[in-house]
């Protein structure tokens, strides 16, 4: 009986730690994907003098994040700053293009500091920041 109780306590401690570890691994994978995809998009811009209209233009339309959802792309430079994602002060977080994952909850808002967006994995400052929106 004592052995069963001990295993139960250990499982109760280990399972949440394992869950947190899985989230960190998925966030890291999404950040690496976003960095790689950004390089492909920037290469396209060098070749065509404009950003692609969609991820399909660079062969990345089927790419999904670690949670199985498609990455979100928006050409800020070609479509204006009005629809771009914004920081807490409502300034665009990128001037070239937005590329992000909606994160574990699958919810997002245009302003990255809002509750639905803080777990998004984003590209900001034109690529000098790639990570969780809460850290931006």
Layout of helices and strands:
Layout lengths: L1 H47 L23 E3 L1 H4 L18 E4 L19 E4 L4 E4 L4
Antiparallel strand pairs: 1-2, 2-3, 3-4
Please describe what this structure looks like.
The protein has a four-stranded antiparallel sheet, covered by helices on one side. It has about 140 residues and is an alpha+beta fold. It is built from two helices and four strands; from the N terminus they run αβαβββ. It has one domain: Glycoprotein, Type 4 Pilin. It has helices at about 1-50, 75-80, and strands at about 70-75, 100, 120-125, 130. Helix content is about 40%, strand content about 10%. It is elongated. The protein starts with a helix and ends with a strand.
Provide a compact summary of the structure.
The protein is an alpha+beta fold and 136 residues long. The protein contains 2 helices and 4 strands, in the order αβαβββ. The protein has a single domain (2-135), classed as Glycoprotein, Type 4 Pilin.
Name its key features.
Glycoprotein, Type 4 Pilin, four-stranded antiparallel sheet, alpha+beta, 4 strands, single chain, elongated
- Low-pLDDT regions: none
Please tell me how large the radius of gyration is: 18 Å
Order of strands side by side in the largest beta sheet?
Answer: 1-2-3-4
Nearest-integer average pLDDT? 92
Class by SSE composition: alpha+beta
Tell me the total number of β-strands: 4
Provide the CATH topology. Glycoprotein, Type 4 Pilin
| CATH-defined architecture | 2-Layer Sandwich
Q: Which CATH class is shown?
A: Alpha Beta
Strand percentage lies at 5-15%
H-E order:
HEHEEE
Shape: elongated
Number of helices: 2
Number of domains: 1
The major sheet is characterized as: 4 strands, antiparallel
Q: What distance lies between the first and last C-alpha atoms, to the nearest angstrom?
A: 49 Å
